[in-house]
Amino acid sequence: xxxxxxxxxxxxxxxxxxxxxxxxxxxxxxxxxxxxxxxxxxxxxxxxxxxxxxxxxxxxxxxxxxxxxxxxxxxxxxxxxxxxxxxxxxxxxxxxxxxxxxxxxxxxxxxxxxxxxxxxxxxxxxxxxxxx
Length: 132
Fold this sequence. Notes:
- Helices cover 33% and strands 19% of the residues.
- It has 132 residues and is an alpha/beta fold.
- It has a 5-stranded parallel beta sheet with strand order 2-1-3-4-5, with helices on one face.
- It is globular.
């Protein structure tokens, strides 16, 4: 049966085993971002959530290949996000965005202590002149 499906897909010009688009989940302070006039781009492969709204069904529906968040927000920090991702069984990439830190290895070790199965790292960004 599987062979028939593959032949039919090829006949129709479709990939016999389509790969789903990679999804990026961005966790942040959505209410504050909106109040500041920041626009959240609408795209199929980008989803936005605040940490409080990150439920198991929502997460399973998105099935992200990477999760991004700031190092800390109004109501959460990197440990909160890593712990929640670990609770959800996520084993993919999680990157916390931050400015340069004096001891970034300390952050990495702390997160890995709380969520050792998570592929965690920091995404270091230079401060932008008009970034307040």
